Give the backbone structure.
Amino acid sequence: GEHYRDRGRDEEAAALLMEAGEYEQAGDLYRKLEEFLRAGECFEASGDHGTAAEMYRAAGDLTRAAVGYEGAGAWSEAAACWGELGDHARHAAALEPAGERLAAGRIYQQLGRDEDAVRVLQKIDAQHPDYRAASAMLGEFFRGKKMYAVAIKKLRQACEGQDLSPESAPLFYHLARCYEDNGDVKQAVDLY
């Protein structure tokens, strides 16, 4: 393979290097030749999932790119590929380890996978900027299930530190409705 490469016959060199199990060198040559699918296959065979994913993406094979990114632990990139492909379940699943739990929870909710949505949203730490939005989503979920005590807790967390404004009014209204539905009319009236 090196003999052909030294003479500028990269295509033949890459094929021979691949046959010899020199996948990384073959992948480099295929990348140079802009044969990205073949390059991806070589890098995948060498165990370099990240570079394989980049090559598959360049070749337009988003499914193989997403799988490669997952293998490399590049979850944000994997999520982006799954999102472009419209595979919402895998998109959400990749967003979780990427740290985008709120986005994953929203997708799971849209898919009707409430248990997954709740599981992911409950993992958002109280110090995280998405905590308030996650608490609001959880509060609405529990309210819909008539689990008013838990809904009140989550909606209170979502309202905590907020003044009444046009943006926060729906949260306060839903909190008041939960109090009312839970039989605590005085608390509901105070919020209305």
Notes: The first helix runs from residue 2 to 6.
